[in-house]
Amino acid sequence: MKGDTACTLLQPKEYKSGVKPVWCPGCGDFGVLGSITKALSGLRIQPENVAIVSGIGCSSRMPTYLNTYGFHGVHGRALALATGLKVARQDLTVIATGGDGDGFSIGGNHFLHTCRRNPDMTYIVMDNQVYGMTKGQASPTTDPNWVQGKLTPSGTGINPFQPLVIALASGANFIARTSSSDSNGTARVIMEAIRHPGFSMVQVLSPCVTFRPEQREWKHMLIPAPAAMEATSDPALAARRLLTDEGVYTGILYQGDRPAYQPKHEPSIDNIAELDEEFQI
Amino acid sequence: MSRKNLSIALTGSGGSGVMTTGSMLLEAAAKAGWYGYMGRSAGPQIRGGEAAALIRVASEPIESPDDSFDLVLAIEPGSMGRFVAELPLRPDSLIISDAEGGRRSSSLPETPAQVVDLPMKKLAKTVKGGRPNMIALGAVAKMIGLPEASIYPILEKTLKSKGAEALEASWACVQKGFAAGHDLPEFEALPIASESSPGEPGPERWSITGNEAAGLGAVRGGVRFVAAYPITPATEALEWLAGTLPKLGGVLVQAEDELSSINQIIGASFGGTPALTATSGPGLALMTESIGLAVCSEVPVVILDVMRCGPSTGIATKSEQSDLNIALNGLHGDAPHLVLSPNSVSDCVFTTQWAVHLAESMQTAAIVLSDQSLGQTRAIVDRPADLAFLAKRLVPEQLEENYLRYAVAVSGVSPMAIPGQKGGQHTADGLEHTEAGTPSSLPEDHLAQLDKRERKINGFDYGQHWADLEGVGDTAVITWGSTTGPVREALSRLKGQGVDIRLIAIRLLAPERPADMAAALKGIKRLLVVEQSHSKQFHRYLRAAYDLPAETRVFNRPGPLPFRPQEIIEQLADWGTKS
Asked: How far is CA A110 from the centre of its chain?
């Protein structure tokens, strides 16, 4: 359901469950929670027609805080679970949420193949370049010289994963970056992502104030992509931009029109007993 | 004594078409009114290598290999060597071999059987495009009493994509083989039991593999979503489902790995669609974390494990009952779930359908343990009965305020709202949770939910299907899964000699059924455990779960060699059961 104007307009706060988040004060994820509720309200999607699916990590706690259907599964498998749900229930609005470790490390294979498969759902990754729930280890998107990581005291020494470049190469058709500090801007991008027919990837740079306090500066560093960089449908151009923008531009950076993965569900036989025929001697 | 069955093996090297030939022979036997089956034995090669079609045809339904083979057709003599252990032969067994096909004297293995020549290659060369396997098909049809004309429609069906020339060449070869068969020893034709009286059709019979049967049971039970990753020997179940689900409005997704498969089916089931995945041991190992999620979040799923020799890649193409431990105990935490096992090709329909029904009724995970010897065997069976077991999930009809997804119900089964149901919003959670589904680390919530998840499974009424209990007497054989076939045949033979021994074939391995088992073991003084596992996994399970008679012994061995009825009879011999 891509929004239904006949449905009741609910205020963003009516999409919240009322359960108090476990997040630290100042965590960027509060902003993303607000953006999701604004987007759902803006699209007038009724809470019972939405499913938020997540894995494990701070940001994966998201479903519990929303008054929609939700699934809080195991580490790294949110996209797989969400794909099964969307393929079986194409009428639902399915949103996967999670962090950089959940999505790009333990769940990396599902990330590649979900971009490739292109089911009609939205993936919101709250990227803070750190494992917060396990108290401060380097993640796939961590800078190689970050020496505060408790498992990598000399830094990881390896280049960070570039999720949007990988998403593009894997076939994602909607690629965006936002900042959690820009709650309304993020909400607008999430609305577009939900409207997009196919897999939509939204990287939200969402600071971890506890283990990466320097990320508080992100709100000054991240800037909207120049007008000339508005969503392109040319993957080659998008690739060049994503490889050279140093991760600071926000907005919808690529949007293609590859058809979504939506297997049909119309039965061709009326009675299951018709299956007997192929076995009869 | 008139013969009631014949065991025939076809061996060949890569591309010689033994599996096609065997399938056609089985189909011809089925058309003639017989029962039977064909098992497959192959090496690890993707194409090529040596392969054997292991066929038994019979007047009555059969579920077991015989003690030995009556006839081996070594289409290439060199191909037989690697199957020697799987092809027990007697002095009166026959090997039909091709002296021109290779170095006969050195390449045929040492066996007690008689060897007879059939120049399959030479005869095939007289036909343009002719192939030795079709000569073999004609010859063996003649030897076992199948009418020549009965082969043509089967050729026509099998070769329809290959064009008229290929069909004519094959038919010419079959006829030449049939003619050559006049000079070969002839077996007494089997009586036909499938006719209730001569000329009258008997019960409806099917030709089906265990993998297809499991797929059929799944869709009959209501499964409409499957996600899976290819793996031997489960792939044929998936291939059948891929073709069948769309007809029923369902869908199969080929996943990127088994981690995805299991999570996709959890997602689909959360959406209200009964869902299944199929795999083998290595895939089951990858799935176990998420099976725990299905248990904790109370989302019904069915996992079909078609077992093969393990651990690791093991012998991927051959059968073993060695995933019992991981199926029973492989989940982390206290995770009560269901483990079931079919005990024949036909029972794959029943057990898989029952598993879907049970998983849906109890909102939990069910693992069905089939194996290669069931899954890849094509059997001629009586039509499997229609069952009343359907996916029937407890879904709230009316949602009141403060709906509690994980309400601590007396039965343990709480109504499960499905996305789209207004007022039923909740988060299904793998974190321990309150009745509402909110994450909780409180000891009382953990205990209440553990109790709930255990109670719903232990308190369920499974009826009589938990095991097949047959026979009378104070001695019993206890077994499970595919080894039940040979045990049944052994006990049937003993009964024919006036010796009564009971059979306990467990279909529901988890949860344990202590009261049912105590009743089943009542009056049993001696118990023989039969299982195809090197470390006696089944015996250890029985010892842990049940009180066994003091006089209990174990007959076990690893795969891939199947049990044969006579071996089981011998195990029972010194218990005064010799007639």
From this structure: 13
Q: Using an 8 Å CB-CB cutoff, list chain B residues near A61.
A: 439
Distance between CA atoms of residues B362 and A171, nearest Å: 40
Inter-chain CB proximity A265 and B250 less than 8 Å: yes
Q: What is the largest CA-CA distance in chain A?
A: 75
Q: How many CB atoms neighbour CB A34 within 10 A?
A: 19
Contact B273 A89 (CB under 8 A): yes
Strand B427-429, strand B378-382: pairing: unpaired
pLDDT digits (tens, 9 = 90+) for B516-557: 999 999 999 999 999 999 999 999 999 999 999 999 999 999
Q: Does domain B465-575 have CATH number 3.40.50.920?
A: yes
Helix/strand number for chain B, H first, E second? 18, 21
What's B208-382's CATH class?
alpha beta
Q: Which residues pair with B371 in a beta bridge?
A: B307
Asked if B248's CB is within 8 angstroms of A85's CB, the reply is no
- Report the pLDDT value the prediction gives residue B579, as an integer from 0 to 100: 44
What is the pLDDT confidence band of residue A1, given thresholds at 50, 70 and 90?
Answer: very low
- Provide CATH 3.40.50.970 ranges for chain B: 208-382
- Residues near B269 by beta carbon (within 8 Å), at least 6 away in sequence: A84, B225, B275, B294, B299, B300, B301
- Given this structure, which CATH class describes domain A12-279? alpha beta
Tell me the pTM: 0.96
Residue of B208, B249, B424 with shortest CB distance to A266:
B249
CA angle, residues B328, B331, B335, in degrees to nearest 5: 85
> Which of 329-388 (B) contact A at CB < 8 A?
380, 383, 386
Chain B, window 214-273: residues with a beta carbon less than 8 angstroms from a chain A beta carbon: 216, 219-220, 224-225, 227, 244, 246-251, 253, 255-257, 259-261, 263-273
Interacting residues of B404 by C-beta distance below 8 A, sequence separation 6+: B414, B435, B436, B437
Residue A108 near residue A170, CB atoms below 8 Å: no
What residues in A contact B31, CB-CB < 8 Å?
Answer: 281
CATH code of the domain made up of B5-181: 3.40.920.10
**CB–CB contact A276 B383 (8 Å):** yes
Q: What percent of chain B has pLDDT over 70?
A: 95
Cis, peptide link before residue B65, omega less than 30° from 0: no
Q: Where in chain B is the domain with CATH 3.40.50.920?
A: 465-575
Count of other CB atoms within 10 angstroms of residue A263: 15
Is residue B74 within 8 A of residue B136, CB to CB? The reply is no
B577 has pLDDT over 70: no
What's the confidence (pLDDT) of residue B272? 98
- Residue A4 has a pLDDT of 52
**pLDDT over threshold 70, residue B184:** yes
| A269 interfaces chain B, CB cutoff of 8 Å | yes
Pairing outcome for strands B378-382 and B205-209: antiparallel
Mean pLDDT value of segment B473-483? 97
Does residue A230 have a pLDDT over 80? no
The minimum CA-CA distance between B132 and chain A, rounded to whole Å, is 27
User: In A, residues 42-61, which contact B (CB 8 Å cutoff)?
Assistant: 46-53, 61
Whether the Cβ atoms of residue A129 and residue A203 lie closer than 8 Å to each other: no
* B96 and B74 Cβ atoms separated by less than 8 Å: yes
Which residue from A13, A90, A15 is spatially nearest to A46, judged by alpha carbons? A15
Mean pLDDT along residues A159-182: 97
Question: What residues of chain A lie within 8 A of the CB of B244, using their CB?
Answer: 275
Edge-to-edge strand ranges of the sheet holding B508-510: B251-254, B225-228, B275-279, B301-307, B365-371, B338-340, B508-510
Q: Do A280 and B204 touch (CB under 8 A)?
A: yes
